[in-house]
Design goal:
The protein is of the alpha/beta class. The protein is about 25% helix and about 30% strand. The radius of gyration is 21 Å and the shape is globular. The protein binds glutamine (GLN).
Length: about 375
């Protein structure tokens, strides 16, 4: 048996899978979040935006279609824990290259199965996103939280820097050059840019604005990524130097950094948006789409006054900001994941829109 223990003593019981060899000295609480998607466990486990978190999946049967390396969103995971109701070995999968369980074991993800994920999700919805601890005995959990006041300050690097690529790399293409700032970029963002024939250069999160501009890109994509956007002061300063100089598309963390760079604010949502059926409305056209989402923070709408950005997309469940465009510069951003397709690929047109503005702005430059 193993347990997820919260500070208030609430405990959820399950059975361990994956990698559990951490010593008691390495015990550390992690933010517990839930995702309501019915499929896509592989994309979620390898989405670096989940770095430093324990992910609860509300879909009760997980692992049933196996593991296909091709579909990983990154070549690593930074997910700390995975909690499921029933874990399937995935024996029914065609051409499977292993199982979710194998992947968790090989990549250091602590798993807990057989958990009452419905009760756990209701708990998180009631009290908000909370830190929880995965332990092999309930006593270890109680002792950890009892001593938690004496804990020394966490000096580890922001998860973005533990997720980004080490060195810049290029992906050939026949079209304009797009710089991608990798805060933990999902492969499907890159794939969507490749589909539109762009040449791509992926830059580590600590690159400087000058390093990026030296390559004379025709557009910039600010990627998704983990953690609190306000804690990324270097990233915010770098985005501030760039967004008035070339067409920009911000996705999720990238969207939040754009808002912060322009003088806006972000805040923490009570329990986040994570799932494949979040309805979003385009304020101008009145058209609504279903989106894939994974974020715990959001842009404060009122803080955008005077920033030069206008809100273009809004969440139909809670009215939060889902997208914005700059009034003067060719800059747009979305809080959701246009590369994540919850069924139909209805939001991929965001990438087409970005391609249009890159082409338009490079022809204008050519004429000048
Ligand atoms: N997927 C993302 O880019 C997430 C952005 C940010 N870490 C948040 O949770 O809000």
């Amino acid at each position: 048996m193993a347990y997820l223990v919260f500070k208030d003593g609430t405990t959820f019981e399950g059975k361990e899978f994956g990698e559990w060899s951490k010593s008691s000295a390495q015990l550390k609480e992690q933010e517990v979040v839930f995702n309501t998607s019915m499929s896509g466990y592989q994309e979620m486990v390898t989405d670096l935006s989940y770095a430093g978190q324990i992910l609860v999946l509300t879909q009760p049967l997980i692992g049933n279609y196996g593991w296909h390396h091709e579909e990983n969103e990154a070549d690593k995971t930074r997910l700390q824990g995975l909690i499921v109701r029933e874990l399937s070995e995935g024996e029914g999968s065609l051409h499977g290259e292993g199982s979710l369980e194998d992947y968790c074991q090989q990549h250091g993800v602590q798993g807990l199965k057989g958990v009452d994920t419905r009760a756990l999700t209701r708990y998180l919805r009631q009290f908000g996103t909370l830190p929880g601890l995965l332990v092999q005995t309930q006593e270890a959990g109680i002792e950890y939280w009892a001593n938690s006041q004496r804990k020394i300050e966490d000096k580890s690097e922001h998860w973005v820097y533990r997720s980004t690529v080490k060195e810049a790399y290029e992906i050939p293409g026949s079209g304009h050059l797009i710089a991608v700032l990798d805060f933990g970029v999902k492969r499907n963002i890159i794939r969507n840019l490749q589909k539109r024939e762009f040449r791509i250069m992926v830059f580590p999160a600590r690159s400087t604005a000058e390093e990026i501009l030296r390559h004379r890109p025709s557009g910039l994509v600010l990627s998704n990524g983990p953690g609190d956007p306000e804690e990324l002061s270097e990233g915010i300063a770098m985005v501030r130097k760039l967004y008035d100089k070339l067409p920009v598309l911000g996705i999720c963390l990238g969207h939040q950094l754009l808002a912060l760079a322009a003088g806006g604010k972000t805040y923490k949502l009570p329990y986040g948006h994570r799932g494949g059926n979040h309805p979003v409305i385009d304020i101008r056209s009145g058209k609504a789409t279903m989106t894939s989402q994974n974020h715990g923070y959001a842009v404060e709408e009122a803080s955008l006054t005077g920033s030069g950005f206008e809100v273009t997309l809004r969440n139909l469940n809670d009215g939060t900001v889902e997208g914005m465009e700059h009034l003067t510069y060719p800059v747009l951003s979305v809080q959701f994941h246009p590369e994540g397709a919850p069924g139909p690929e209805e939001n991929a047109e965001i990438f087409d829109h970005f391609k249009d503005i890159v082409l338009r702005s490079s022809t204008q430059k050519g004429r000048r």
